[in-house]
Design a protein that fits this description.
Blueprint: E1 33-41, E2 45-47, E3 51-61, E4 65-74, E5 77-86, E6 88-97, E7 110-121, E8 133-144, E9 148-156, E10 166-174, E11 186-192, E12 198-205, E13 211-216, E14 223-231, E15 240-248, E16 259-267, E17 271-274, E18 277-280, E19 286-294, E20 299-300, E21 305-312, E22 317-324, E23 330-335, E24 343-349, E25 358-363, E26 372-378, E27 383-385, E28 389-398, E29 409-414, E30 426-427, E31 433-439, E32 450-459, E33 470-479, E34 482-488, E35 492-494, E36 498-507, E37 515-521, E38 524-531, E39 535-541, E40 549-557, E41 565-583, E42 587-589, E43 593-602, E44 613-618, E45 622-628, E46 634-640, E47 648-657, E48 661-662, E49 664-673, H1 686-689, E50 693-698, E51 704-709, E52 715-718, E53 725-726, E54 729-730, E55 737-744, E56 752-754, E57 757-759, E58 769-773
Parallel strand pairs: 2-8, 27-33, 35-41, 41-48, 42-49
Antiparallel strand pairs: 1-3, 3-6, 4-5, 4-7, 7-8, 9-10, 10-13, 11-12, 11-14, 14-15, 16-19, 17-18, 19-20, 19-23, 21-22, 21-24, 24-25, 26-28, 28-31, 29-30, 29-32, 32-33, 34-36, 36-39, 37-38, 37-40, 40-41, 41-43, 43-46, 44-45, 44-47, 47-49, 50-51, 52-55, 53-54, 55-58, 56-57
């Protein structure tokens, strides 16, 4: 019969929140922590009498005493509980049987619940206000009616004979657990003779042990009698139909000596202590002893043929064997339960010419699920990034034998603020291996970074269960992939200026990140800048002494919980020239030299600028100077004016250039003259030699000056000319020297050329000086 909830699979939707391994010493003053991570039941619908496996995980820290209570009930009534004293992180599976007397499922079922509560205190007897914490979680399930089972408990006489009344005692009980009788229930039954005729039809009510009697008279007719039983439905049970066949022998049989069977067992595999009782595990062997006695003489019966059956709590036969007792009246056999749960052994003696048949039943202690051992073959690397894929693989073996275990569900869970399994489910193969590819969802970018616990969770979802749940836990460091963006308001900047810098840091899915960034200039750390909602703005000040050329601005985001990311920006630092030009003269005669003494400095720090390219062009087409400044920032050049050079006013254009400097252009006007001489033939007295001679000269900016020449006719007129550039405007300053010199040339009635005019001068004189102005 298919019962509601029989095949409902064990729900695995609840997430495993991980715990820290090991003990932590906590002082009395520290607050305690008590957390129930999860509570699970193996099904959502149960029939009365079934076992409910309550799987709970809890964690207590900061306390030397923990009281954990597992309980089940329905409505507001608690019908069963079990308490434990633990410390730290614990996972337990507690079994409760649904006693029909505690439940009222009715036809449509009733709501049940399972609850795990934990309380933490420093000591159970401490009432001084020590640290205290508690937590609980509850899950719900449904309880419905179960099916009935029936057994023939007693036959009188045994074996029944055809010349006496036969009394059969039947027992009705819960189909899931024979220890729960179906009491006070209406039962009808019919007895049919070996030839199929109706011998008896009647009804009765079961007693408090679920038992009722059927008595009939064979009337000397031996053979197989069929008894059909109908047990009526009630609030806890569905109706049941049962058929038994009883062999009635001839009354002339020699079966006369009563016998007795005793059953004993001995665990010969791995065992454990649960509730002060020794228990064993699924698949672990148990040795069962069937002892046959003469019930009158209490002596062993040898050579007695016995049969033994092992059946589980569902009355499913899982093992049977037939054997003969030895000289001590003992027949023994080994039995290994194929899965965890409750098992019973039924043994019967078939009887012989001397001894009557007999039987007995032994209920074995519950067998626990076998422990698993998990080997991590491949797990996450040291650092895991959001959005990337990783391979994780495990090997699952039997903890006792080391052999591979197949068919175990494997899943990966993380200690997340939200419930989320890292993977779906995989099943171990024949070699016990399970591997899968895991990708961390980008939606966990903000909640994930940092150290988190990760566990591989292993669960035997077969029904019934062979292996207990297991897990392997490790601490994993997760990082978020971060991206750093930097923008500046210019690609080049002058010394002593500032650059506005914008920074934005986000995850690879554009979630703004907070923290701080380090600012570097040419690999030298300058300062840290805090981020607000992923952004920051700051001014980068350029020194007046900063080297001209390309520089690298680096902004690095290096928070421990995130991937290191950075952004480099190239910025060209430029400067301007401060140029001084000393020109020997702005008026020069053909055939003479004009000297240019140039000094180039940096306008910001007044340091010499070397390797500056200097061009000087005359009227825009003739290059009269091309060179580079030396390490002192200077260059000197003499321009020789050819003797046939056309006189006039010429514009000299200076061009200064060097990489990462703003180009500079300066212009000067130079007057090229024809050289002339005037020879005076006069008689000069001493008075004339000492007289003053006014000489008119023209300098920069049409400035006029007069100088008095004394006896030596020598007067020095100094004019200094200097030009600096501000937005290519010209400013003139007096920096250079012009001179009026006298030459003493003795001429006698000679013609001289003054400009283009021929002049004839009369007079004698010796030693009269000639005048040349330039």
């Amino acid at each position: 019969m298919v019962h509601v909830g029989r095949y409902i699979k064990f729900s695995l939707g609840l997430v495993l929140v991980l715990f820290f391994l090991g003990l932590v010493g906590i002082s009395v003053a520290s607050p305690a922590t008590a957390v129930v991570y999860y509570v699970e039941v193996d099904k959502m619908v149960y029939e009365v009498g079934e076992p409910v496996f309550v799987n709970g995980s809890y964690f207590v820290e900061g306390s030397s005493y923990t009281l954990a209570t597992f309980s089940i009930g329905f409505n507001s009534s608690t019908v069963g509980d079990s308490s434990f004293s633990d410390y730290g992180a614990v996972t337990r599976v507690v079994t409760f049987y649904l006693d029909p007397s505690d439940w009222d499922p009715g036809v449509n079922g009733t709501d049940g619940w399972a609850k795990v509560s934990v309380e933490a205190a420093d000591l159970p007897s401490d009432t001084s206000g020590s640290p205290y914490a508690s937590d609980s979680k509850t899950v719900f399930f449904t309880v419905v009616r179960a099916g009935q089972n029936c057994s023939l408990k007693y036959v009188h006489p045994d074996p029944p004979i055809d010349n006496s009344s036969v009394i059969l005692t039947f027992r009705l009980f819960n189909e899931h657990n024979s220890s729960f009788p179906v009491v006070s229930n209406n039962v009808s039954f019919s007895v049919f003779s070996p030839n199929g005729s109706l011998v008896l039809s009647n009804s009765t009510v079961t007693d408090l042990n679920g038992e009722f009697n059927v008595e009939f008279d064979p009337n000397g007719f031996s053979g197989n009698y069929t008894i059909e039983i109908h047990s009526f439905e009630n609030e806890d049970y569905e109706a049941g139909w049962f058929t038994f066949v009883v062999e009635v022998s001839s009354g002339l049989s020699n079966f006369s000596k009563p016998t007795r069977i005793e059953l004993e067992y001995d665990f010969i595999g791995n065992t454990a202590m649960r509730d002060e009782q020794e228990v064993s595990y699924a698949l672990e062997p148990v040795r069962v002893f069937v002892k046959l006695f003469d019930d009158v003489l209490d002596s062993p019966i040898s050579s007695g043929e016995v049969r033994a059956f092992v059946f589980d709590w569902r009355n499913t036969t899982v093992f049977n064997v037939t054997g003969v007792t030895n000289g001590s009246g003992v027949f023994e056999f080994n039995f290994s339960p194929p899965y965890s749960g409750s098992f019973s052994v039924y043994a019967e003696f078939l009887g012989n010419e001397t001894f009557n048949p007999s039987n007995n039943m032994l209920i074995l202690p519950k067998f626990l699920p076998r422990p698993l051992k998990v080997e991590v073959v491949e797990k996450f690397p040291n650092v895991v990034y959001v959005g990337e894929s990783y391979w994780v693989s495990f090997r699952v073996v039997d903890n006792f034998t080391g052999l591979s275990v197949s068919g175990v569900n494997v899943s990966l869970f993380g200690e997340w603020p939200m419930e989320f399994p890292l993977s779906g489910f995989k099943v171990t193969n024949e070699s016990g291996y399970s591997e899968f590819q895991v990708e961390i969802p980008a939606t966990y970018a903000n909640a994930l970074p940092g150290y988190r616990h990760v566990a591989g969770w292993f669960m035997d979802t077969r029904d019934p269960v062979v292996y207990e749940n297991s897990s392997v836990i490790w601490e994993q460091f997760f990082r978020e992939v971060s991206l750093t963006y930097v923008s500046v308001n210019c690609s080049e900047v002058l010394r002593k200026e500032s650059v506005m810098v914008n920074v934005y840091v986000c995850s690879d899915d554009n979630v703004p990140l907070n923290g701080s960034v380090q600012v570097y200039w040419d690999n030298v750390e300058l300062f840290n800048v805090s981020l607000f909602n992923g952004s920051s703005i700051f001014l980068l000040n350029i020194s007046s002494n900063e080297n001209v050329g390309f520089h690298v601005l680096n902004v690095t985001f290096n928070e421990i919980n995130y991937d290191v990311s950075f952004c480099n920006v190239s910025i060209a630092v430029k400067s301007v020239f401060d140029v001084s030009i000393n020109i020997s003269s702005l008026d020069i005669c053909r055939g003479e030299n004009c000297g240019f003494e140039i000094l180039v400095l940096d306008a910001f720090n007044q340091n010499p600028v070397s390797n500056v390219t200097v061009f000087a062009e005359l009227n825009g087409n003739k290059i009269i100077l091309e060179g580079l400044t030396d390490d002192n920032g200077s260059i000197f050049y003499l321009w020789h004016v050819p003797s046939g050079f056309q006189p006039g006013i010429y514009v000299v254009r200076f061009n200064f250039s060097r990489e990462f400097y703003t180009p500079l252009y300066l212009e000067f006007s130079i007057h090229v003259w024809i050289r002339t001489s005037i020879i005076f033939n006069v008689s000069v007295s001493e008075n004339v030699l000492t007289q003053k001679l006014l000489i008119k000269t023209v300098g920069a900016g049409n400035m006029k000056a007069k100088a008095s020449q004394q006896y030596d006719f020598t007067s020095i007129l100094r004019c200094f000319l200097r030009r600096t550039s501000v937005d290519k405007q010209k400013t003139w300053k007096i920096i250079d020297t012009f001179s009026v010199k006298l030459q003493h040339i003795i001429k006698d009635e000679k013609l001289i050329l003054l400009g283009r005019k021929k002049v004839k001068i009369h007079g004698k004189v010796k030693g009269f000086p000639s005048l040349r102005m330039f």
